[in-house]
Design goal:
The complex is a heterotrimer of chains A (205), B (416) and C (290).
Chain A lengths: L1 H32 L7 H10 L4 H6 L9 H8 L5 H29 L6 H26 L2 H18 L19 H21 L2
Helix pairs in contact in A: 1-5, 2-6, 5-6, 5-8, 6-7, 6-8
Chain B lengths: L1 H13 L2 H17 L21 E3 L3 H18 L2 E3 L6 E3 L3 H15 L3 H15 L6 H10 L10 H15 L14 E3 L2 H14 L3 H16 L2 H15 L3 H5 L5 H37 L8 H28 L4 H14 L22 H37 L7 H7 L1
Antiparallel strand pairs in B: 1-4, 2-3
Chain C lengths: L4 E10 L2 E11 L2 E6 L6 H8 L7 E6 L2 E2 L3 H7 E4 L11 H11 L4 H14 L15 H13 L5 E5 L7 H14 L4 E6 L2 H7 L2 E6 L2 E7 H6 L5 E7 H10 L1 E8 L2 E7 L9 E2 L4 H10 L4
Parallel strand pairs in C: 3-8, 3-9, 6-7, 7-8
Antiparallel strand pairs in C: 1-2, 1-4, 4-5, 9-10, 11-13, 11-14, 12-13
The chains are: A mainly alpha (205), B mainly alpha (416), C alpha/beta (290).
Chain lengths: 205, 416, 290
């Protein structure tokens, strides 16, 4: 257990810090461009589903940054500890952080006197964030190019702005569009993409 | 040398997975948005005695007052006012005293108290409830409801009221004139014919199609080239070829200019090709009706509307990536793109200085002609900014090359 | 003008760390070796000469051109960095052509020179091999090809044989010697054998300072009459290592044949033997004698 704590801690300290900082700026910066005060359910959903969900991209895609140098990747692969365990540890931390960021946004809305269902909005946003981040995570896992991971996630987000209706259960902003029941699909797809990404990456030895 | 390097950089881009993903996303997105054929109906000449000639923007004072007050009523009901203070869309929720003040202005202008307005609104919708069979019917009824305007209300009094609301709610609200973009009235046969003649003679038909194309393509090219640019700039470091390239005699200007030009061309060429393809059905339909289409509209609009966006996005991604040797350009420029996208209060015109210029409509040449001047200024500004960005990138690259102090000075020094 | 590099009072510091300290050297035509342990400042020195780092103090003039005139200097130098690589998806030919273009060669020149260089470094048959599929030796040969293709007056190679097998190493050294005619080849290495085989003149850097400059012969003479071989028992070996500067040990069961550098014969029965450059280098670095 100690070695996993060590590897995850090392990842957080040496590679993940800029991305954590970005998440903090993202959280603080929200106040400058969004209003959290006195929003109704639709208004709150817009804040969460169109803005807060981007934290998934910020926090999940950098999981493979340490191995973007092939030489480092191969060296780590040569060691006794299987890589999938390292990845899993990092993904667990990133997922926890996504949950926390979504939670902080919910708290800000609640503190602003907005009226909405806390549990429905939190779980919906968490699932959506994870899904959006998992798309880029999967692409990055398969191609080992972080830029591509960001690109595909961002493209998916932008495409959904006009075409979410056409994507069925996997369309973003579901609560904004009046659907509170798609979160299990998004969450399931996210977990599938995360698992598949790690599995395919391990197969690339 | 620039020519040689330009060709080589183009070849390198053709080997990049990021570039092919850009192509796929661009094509899929544009095809999905432009696949509709409703525009074909616009090519039929209006006939006298038609039931409906569509709607157009009105400059009639009575229509403007009605529109402004309807928007005000909608936002007072929702207790939330959409504003664009710095170009970002922000919902402003006034406190009770502010809302009361705004409601008083509404009641004064309509000559009815808020409760009365609500009752009238509810009664209207209950009256048409049985007819709500589809979205089109809903939209028709939405436009069918008209807020009462107080008899004797002068246009100046109305403007004063709007000004007061604008001050309470804050900068960039609907009430600093934006409501005028929603003031529509049914077109007469003469109006429809004028629109039709403008479409055929001045727009060459394809102009209308290309504005719609640029509306959609403008969104995609405000985002995707960020990744192409970042990947291009990080390529040397990723391949561990940066040192050997730094040691070469080629000037920083030549290298950056050729790389930048290659990126611009490679991103732009598919856009032009797709614009040409999107124009084809329009040319065909126009020809079948004996209308002479403007065959060069695809080029004119791509160059003026879209190329500056591509240039400035690539320029900014080059500058930030070369300065930081990280992917920082992605979140910064993504935020900029999203801000521009959400700053559009209407989807046709109001170009201002926005990066993403919207025109989500087939036609409207008359209005476009009025606003075209601002579009040209807007695009001119972005071309200048793009050039400035690349000129700034050259010394940044030069500093890195000589291991001097800069944002990455520390990293460069440690590499020694 | 004869090719010459003049370095006067060169210093380079990174914050508080002094990487180079008042280095004075004059490097003429032919092979010049720069020897020193890891961290001595060799790569920093190389990078200053190739304009990839700015010096803190001093003067560096390459064939009459001060190093501040970076473009001119780059035009007449060819550089092979320690960890040379190129875009993995390029073939050897494409990579060489690309780097030659960056060196200012015209299309006609490249058309002529690229195949010539590939043949010279024995890569003509592998011209279509992608860089990512190349062995270390092949990459290094590609590296030297790009460093010399534009016919520079000065070639700077940083640890070119590290990681190469003996055959590759010999081949590489021979190539460098060939191209050293009528130009300066500055070779930085911590592999003494490379220096011995190829360089007439050398300098030794340690902790940023030049602790020796001269010919290989002069370096060898500094340790003449001080290198002994002696047989010691396995039990005594540790004590010998503690007391003397040992540059070679050959274990033969219960005894060991040890090479020692010492002012005086260390033991009765110690035999004088011929010194090699490695012995001289060790003597210079450690200066530990009995």
């Amino acid at each position: 257990m100690e070695k996993y704590k060590k590897t995850v801690g090392s990842f957080l300290r040496y590679q993940y810090l800029p991305h954590l900082a970005a998440a903090v700026v993202f959280q603080i910066g929200a106040g400058a461009i969004l209003s959290f005060r006195n929003l109704d359910a639709q208004g709150a959903a817009k804040v969460m589903e169109m803005y807060a969900c981007l934290c998934g991209i910020i926090l999940l895609i950098p999981v493979f940054v340490p191995e973007s140098d092939r030489a480092v990747w191969q060296l780590e692969q040569s060691k006794m500890t299987p890589m999938w365990k390292l990845y899993l540890g990092r993904v667990a931390v990133a997922t926890l952080l996504v949950a926390v960021v979504a939670g902080i946004f919910i708290l800000r809305l609640w503190a602003g006197g907005s009226l909405f269902s806390v549990w429905v909005l939190w779980r919906g946003t968490f699932s959506e964030s994870l899904f959006l981040g998992a798309i880029g995570f999967f692409v990055c896992a398969v191609t080992n190019q972080v830029v591509l991971g960001y690109m595909v996630s961002v493209a998916y987000y932008v495409a959904n702005i006009g075409a979410a209706d056409r994507l069925g259960k996997f369309g973003l902003y579901p609560i904004l569009r009046g659907d509170t029941a798609t979160w299990p699909w998004l969450l399931g797809a996210a977990l599938l993409l995360l698992g598949a990404g790690i599995w395919l990456r391990e197969r690339k030895r | 040398m620039i020519g040689t390097l330009f060709v080589k950089e183009c070849r390198q881009i053709l080997k990049s997975l990021v570039y092919y993903i850009y192509l796929v996303i661009f094509v899929v997105f544009i095809t999905s948005q432009m696949s509709g054929t409703e525009w074909i109906d616009e090519l039929d000449e209006p006939q006298p005695g038609q039931q409906n000639y569509g709607y157009g923007l009105s400059d009639s004072e009575s229509v403007l007052m009605e529109t402004g007050l309807e928007k005000l009523f909608e936002e007072v009901r929702g207790r939330s006012f959409l504003t664009y203070p710095f170009g970002f869309a922000k919902d402003v929720v006034p406190d009770n005293s502010e809302l009361e003040e705004i409601t008083e202005i509404l009641e004064y202008c309509t000559g009815t108290d808020m409760m009365g307005l609500e009752e009238a609104y509810t009664a209207y919708w209950m009256g048409v409830e049985g007819e709500m069979v589809d979205y089109e019917t809903y939209m028709r009824h939405l436009e069918g409801w008209h807020i009462p305007v107080r008899e004797g209300l002068s246009y100046d009094e109305f403007l004063a009221g709007m000004e007061q609301v604008s001050q309470i709610v804050g900068k960039g609200s609907m009430y600093d004139g934006r409501y005028a973009h929603y003031a529509k009235e049914p077109l007469s046969y003469e109006d429809a014919m004028q629109s039709y003649r403008e479409l055929c003679e001045k727009d060459g038909v394809t102009g209308a199609q290309m504005r719609l194309f640029c509306d959609y393509a403008g969104i995609i090219v405000a985002f995707l080239p960020i990744f192409v640019g970042v990947a291009s700039c990080l390529r040397d470091r990723r391949a561990k070829a940066d040192e050997v390239i730094y040691s070469k005699a080629v000037s920083g200007f030549t290298l950056m200019a050729s790389r930048y030009a290659a990126n611009v061309v490679m991103v732009f060429v598919p856009v032009v090709i797709w614009a040409f393809l999107a124009q084809m059905p329009c040319v065909y339909e126009a020809a079948s009706r004996g209308i002479a289409a403007d065959g060069f509209a695809f080029l004119k609009y791509s160059v003026i509307w879209l190329l500056p966006v591509i240039m400035v996005v690539l320029s900014a991604s080059f500058l930030i990536t070369e300065a930081t040797d990280t992917i920082l350009a992605i979140p910064i420029l993504f935020a900029g793109g999203i801000a521009s996208l959400f700053s559009a209060s209407i989807l046709t015109g109001d170009f201002g200085w926005k990066l993403i210029a919207r025109w989500n409509e087939f036609g409207g040449y008359g209005r476009f002609a009025q606003e075209a001047g601002q579009l040209y200024l807007n695009r001119g500004l972005y071309v200048i900014l793009a050039a400035a960005g690349i000129f700034l990138t050259v010394p940044v690259y030069g500093k890195k090359r000589e291991g001097g102090s800069g944002p990455n000075g520390k990293i460069q020094k440690n590499r020694g | 003008m004869a090719a010459q590099i003049q370095i006067h009072n060169l210093s380079k510091s990174f914050g508080k760390k002094q990487a180079l300290r008042q280095v004075d050297l004059t490097i003429g035509e032919g092979m010049f070796g720069l020897l020193g342990p890891n961290g001595a400042g060799k790569t920093t020195f190389m990078k200053i000469l190739t304009t990839l780092l700015r010096k803190s103090e001093g003067e560096v003039v390459i064939c009459g051109v001060p190093v501040e005139r970076a473009t001119e200097v780059r035009r007449m130098t060819g550089y092979l960095p320690q960890d040379f690589s190129m875009y993995g998806n390029m073939s050897a030919q494409e990579a060489l052509d690309y780097l030659a273009a960056l060196s200012g060669m015209s299309r006609a020149q490249r058309r002529e020179k690229v195949p010539e260089m590939l043949e010279k470094v024995n890569l003509l048959e592998q011209k279509s091999t992608r860089v990512k599929a190349m062995s270390g030796g092949m990459k290094r040969r590609l590296g030297i090809a790009q460093a010399i293709i534009h016919d520079p007056r000065v070639i700077i190679v940083d640890e070119p044989t590290a990681g190469l097998d003996p055959e590759e190493r010999v081949r590489f050294r021979n190539l460098l010697c060939e191209i050293a005619r009528d130009r300066i080849v500055l070779l930085s290495t911590h592999i003494v054998g490379d220096i011995e085989a190829t360089c007439e003149n050398i300098a030794v850097l340690n902790k940023g300072e030049v602790i020796f400059r001269g010919t290989v012969g002069e370096l060898l003479r500094s340790v003449e009459g001080k290198v002994y071989t002696v047989e010691v028992s396995a039990r005594e070996l540790e004590a010998v290592k503690q007391r003397y500067l040992v540059t070679g040990i050959l274990n033969t069961g219960s005894t060991a044949n040890v090479k020692i550098i010492s002012q005086e014969p260390p033991f009765a029965g110690a035999k004088l033997c011929d010194a090699d450059v490695e012995d001289a280098y060790m003597h210079l670095m450690h200066g530990k004698t009995s």
